[in-house]
């Protein structure tokens, strides 16, 4: 009997938790997994007694869904998504809906939307953030795709999403827009997440390796930071990490974790697409490169025995160090850099919207990230306020609040970046954030020389400051002859 409100395919932890979340909110859910033993384990385990129907075939799965059928896919991005779609399509009817809740590449979403639309089916690329806990108790969700699908998805997705606001009644889920916009916004979210994490790691490195704070002291610093403007999920879990002991050795677990970071690709996509759009999303790019460099662990160990930095600089720095002042300077540098990271992310969203004809609501997007997701933070309310003040805001740095923050924090920010350089402590994200700020605020950049070079060797032409038009000069003929 077709009595299930929605179905979900892919019972890894995220998929299971979303299903349990849906059932908790009163929805009947059908589930299927290619390895059918997982279906049985789930239905007879954590899903036992709940309004969840286990299915052993795709045919049975589809038969259990009310019309219009809503089938959500939670499998690994790429060919696996297409494989599931190809199994579903022959069994569905016009007006039925397929939702891809994975981290799919947005152009794959655009392609699937077109192909399924030609078959009379509705497709939604829905970004889901929040990890396992978010999926279970309230994720941030970013649905896009076929607009006709949204009225059928809204009651379910907004019910299970995280809630924010004074009355805890604003769902962190709303319609993003057409095409692949939902997955694009989720991708930029992930890129900003890369940036946030790298910035926190650089603050940690300065405080631990330069200033010499213990893990207990670092816990206290991050606990204090989490009560102010930096209040966020990532600061909170960083605080907690410093308290965890390895059960086998009794040592602080964080010190036993190999400094070799992994990644799944969404940060890289953000950087690649920023280059395609010609927008400088430099902080995310540096965060991606930092992970790449960390993965070259063996090479770094070999290099550390040959390449030397400023000898004795850290020991000298610690003599007479005003720890409280330095901690505050690092906090200022972290917050100012965070502002730049989000500013760059929203500039990229604006450029992508112009490129694809999407009508994105940037303040609303900030609120979708206010709860449930990995980058959830008090700070995001400030972004919503900025776009409420000026919906066509060109750059967050131009908003009065963010302008004042960066201006009041920049002295400390510059001192921290300069100190790191003198000590030989790498802070690529802090540094690139400051370089972007200085570049963006400069009415004149040295690109006039760069364009002259391009015209000299390749006749690429140039524009002039004193008149309209495009020009080319014979620089070789016009130059002063070099001395013999």
Please provide a written account of the structure.
- The active site is at residues 186, 193.
- It comes from Kolteria novifilia.
- Keywords: Gluconate utilization, NADP, Oxidoreductase, Pentose shunt.
- The protein is α/β, with parallel strands linked by helices.
- The chain folds into three domains: 6-179, 3-Layer(aba) Sandwich (Rossmann fold), CATH 3.40.50.720; 186-440, N-(1-d-carboxylethyl)-l-norvaline Dehydrogenase, domain 2 (Orthogonal Bundle), CATH 1.10.1040; 447-478, Single alpha-helices involved in coiled-coils or other helix-helix interfaces.
- It contains 21 helices and nine strands.
- It has helices at 13-24, 36-43, 58-63, 79-88, 106-118, 131-137, 150-160, 181-210, 215-225, 233-241, 266-277, 282-295, 297-304, 313-318, 323-356, 362-368, 379-389, 400-423, 428-440, 447-458, 475-478; strands at residues 6-9, 29-32, 52-55, 70-73, 97-100, 122-129, 140-145, 163-164, 170-171.
- It has a seven-stranded mixed β-sheet with strand order 3-2-1-4-5-6-7, with helices on both faces. The chain has a two-stranded antiparallel ribbon with strand order 8-9.
- Strand 5 (97-100), helix 5 (106-118) and strand 6 (122-129) form a beta-alpha-beta unit.
- The protein is globular.
- The protein starts with 5 loop residues before the first strand and ends in a 6-residue tail after the last helix.
- The mean pLDDT is 96.
Kindly state the number of beta strands: 9
Number of helices: 21
> What order do the SSEs take from the amino end to the carboxyl end, as H and E?
EHEHEHEHEHEHEHEEHHHHHHHHHHHHHH
State the CATH topology of the largest domain.
N-(1-d-carboxylethyl)-l-norvaline Dehydrogenase, domain 2
CATH class of the largest domain: Mainly Alpha
Tally of individual domains: 3
Question: Would you tell me the structural class of the helices and strands?
Answer: alpha/beta
Mean pLDDT comes to 96
Strand percentage, roughly? Answer: 5-15%
Rg, Å, rounded: 26 Å
Helix content: 40-55%
CATH H-level name of the largest domain... which superfamily? N-(1-d-carboxylethyl)-l-norvaline Dehydrogenase, domain 2
Shape assignment = globular
The spatial strand order of the largest sheet comes to 3-2-1-4-5-6-7
The appropriate CATH architecture of the largest domain is Orthogonal Bundle
Q: Distance between termini? A: 93 Å
Point out poorly predicted stretches: none
Largest beta-sheet details: 7 strands, mixed
């Amino acid at each position: 009997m077709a009595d299930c409100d929605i179905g979900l395919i892919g019972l890894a932890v995220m998929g299971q938790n979303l299903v349990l979340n849906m059932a908790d909110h009163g929805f009947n859910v059908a589930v299927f997994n290619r390895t059918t033993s997982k279906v049985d384990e789930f239905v007879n385990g954590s899903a036992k007694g709940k309004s969840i129907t286990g299915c052993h075939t795709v045919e049975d799965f589809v038969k259990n869904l009310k019309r219009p059928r809503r089938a959500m896919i939670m499998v690994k991005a790429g060919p696996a998504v297409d494989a599931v779609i190809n199994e579903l399509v022959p069994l569905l009817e016009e007006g039925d809906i397929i939702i891809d809740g994975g981290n799919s590449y947005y152009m794959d979403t655009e392609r699937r939307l077109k192909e399924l639309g030609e078959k009379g089916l509705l497709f939604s690329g829905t970004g889901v953030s929040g990890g396992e806990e978010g999926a279970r108790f309230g994720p941030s969700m970013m649905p896009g795709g076929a607009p006709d699908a949204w009225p059928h998805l809204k009651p379910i997705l907004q019910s299970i999403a995280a809630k924010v606001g004074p009355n805890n009644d604003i769902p962190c889920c709303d319609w993003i827009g057409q095409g692949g916009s939902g997955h694009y916004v989720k991708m930029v979210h992930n890129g900003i997440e890369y940036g946030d994490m790298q910035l926190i790691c650089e603050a940690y490195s300065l405080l631990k390796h330069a200033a010499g704070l213990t893990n207990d002291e670092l816990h206290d610093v991050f606990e204090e930071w989490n009560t102010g403007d930096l209040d966020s999920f990532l600061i909170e879990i960083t605080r907690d990490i410093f308290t965890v002991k390895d059960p086998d050795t009794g040592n602080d677990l964080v010190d036993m974790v190999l400094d070799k970071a992994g990644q799944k690709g969404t940060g890289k996509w953000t950087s690649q697409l920023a280059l395609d759009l010609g927008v400088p999303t430099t902080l995310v790019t540096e965060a991606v490169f930092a992970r790449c460099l960390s993965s070259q662990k063996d090479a770094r160990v070999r290099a550390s025995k040959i390449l030397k930095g400023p000898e004795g600089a850290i020991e000298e720095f610690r003599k007479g160090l005003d720890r409280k002042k330095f901690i505050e300077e690092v906090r200022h540098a972290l917050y100012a850099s965070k502002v730049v990271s989000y500013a760059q992310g929203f500039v990229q969203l604006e450029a992508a919207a112009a490129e694809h004809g999407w009508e994105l609501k940037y303040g609303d997007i900030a609120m979708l990230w206010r709860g449930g997701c990995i980058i959830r933070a008090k700070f995001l309310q400030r972004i919503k306020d900025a776009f409420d003040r000026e919906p066509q805001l060109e750059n967050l740095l131009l908003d009065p609040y963010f302008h004042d923050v960066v201006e009041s924090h920049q002295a400390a920010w510059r001192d921290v970046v300069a100190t790191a350089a003198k000590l030989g402590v790498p802070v690529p994200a802090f540094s690139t954030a400051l370089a972007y700020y200085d570049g963006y605020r400069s009415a004149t950049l040295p690109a006039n020389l760069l364009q002259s070079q391009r015209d000299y060797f390749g006749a690429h032409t140039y524009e002039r400051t004193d008149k309209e038009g495009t020009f080319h000069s014979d620089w070789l003929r016009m130059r002063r002859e070099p001395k013999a």
